[in-house]
Amino acid sequence: GVFSLACMLQRNTTLTWLDIRGCDLGLSGEGDSKRNWCTLGLNRLCFEIAKPTCKLTHLLLSFNQLPPSHVSLLCEALPKSNLKVLEMKNCGINDTVSMCKVAKMVGKCPKLTHLDIGLNTLHTKTAKVLYTSLRRNTTLQFLGLFQCRIGPGITHIANLMPTNKSLRVVELGGNLLEAKQMSYLIAKTKNNYTLESTGQMVCRCLDCKKQKLANKNKYKWSVPRPLNTDANNALKSVQRVDTKGSGDCLDRILQRNRRLKVKRRKLAFLSGFHKRLGQNSSIFNILGCSAIMEKGMLSEIFEYCGRQSQYHM
After folding, report:
1. Cα dihedral sign for 74, 76, 80, 83?
2. Helix boundaries (H) for the chain
């Protein structure tokens, strides 16, 4: 299994994507001889990945049970590789020592942009180590922490939000967070203008609760109901709550960041033309005559950019 993969990787120097998710590689098999053979094969695989000539950029190891010794081998080899995407979802990494090694490895990988360690256990100590590593890593854009039982460790992830400018998606769905932890995360995310999604996490602010109840009662048959139903009582209880802090909503913050991303793309689209052709270039000079491209299509392009009024048809 693993040894054959290593030999294949040695011969094929152009491979960029290795997907071995759920392949039952035998890394946790019974018997000392089988475990020793698998360790030898993984050691060889890590040696090939760490070579400067290896062009592997995507390594998908999800749904393979990795013992602590094999996690250590991977964490020593990956910082020397050219990996950009690493998936280790549901790999049975539940002890603090192994997960701390994975967290430290993130800070040593300068090219890593995608890391998914969901369905493993992320203790509070590990979250603190991950916070330290992510302060050094400026390339990571996706961090998967789905159902990691993070608990109080969410404070360390939240402390990263005001200063981090590379993360676009942090998957936090499936983690049971208390109201105080959720409020702390929202307060820290306010000053982050690059984060666009938190996965399947549900915002539980007052405005979202009202919207959920409104949507629940919106499409219903107009049948007379008793006034003391659960839905009516819940709606009245929400309406009686003080709405002083109703402006703090995680969904609104993420929507704001997504709008800013679209605006940045529009400005980059225009600045690319301006650098080559000048600030006051006309549509004719930029995209050619109307015989090549119709006038309506040109209007749609520049209307999308939001700068149609500055150009002369």
Report:
1. positive
2. 2-11, 32-49, 68-77, 96-108, 124-136, 154-160, 179-189, 206-218, 230-240, 250-277, 283-287, 295-305
Give the length of the chain: 313
Phi/psi for 247 (5° steps) reads: -80, -15
Alpha carbon distance 181, 168 (integer Å): 21
Orientation angle between helical segments 179-189 and 250-277, nearest 10 degrees: 20
8 A C-beta contact, residue 143 and residue 201: no
Tens digit of each residue's pLDDT (9 = 90 or more) over 206-242: 777 777 777 766 555 444 444 445 545 544 554 443 4
The 8-class DSSP code of residue 203 comes to P
Nearest one of 94, 127, 115 to 28, comparing CA atoms: 94
Candidates 198, 77, 103; CA nearest to 142 is 198
Q: Is 43 buried (19+), middle (13-18) or exposed (0-12) by CB count in 10 A?
A: middle
Q: In 10 A of CB 268, how many CB atoms?
A: 9
Which is nearest to 101 in space by CA: 64, 142, 69, 53?
69
Phi/psi-derived region of residue 225, left when phi > 0, alpha when psi is between -120 and 50, beta in every other case: beta
Cα gap 84→194, rounded to integer Å: 20
0.85 exceeded by pTM: no
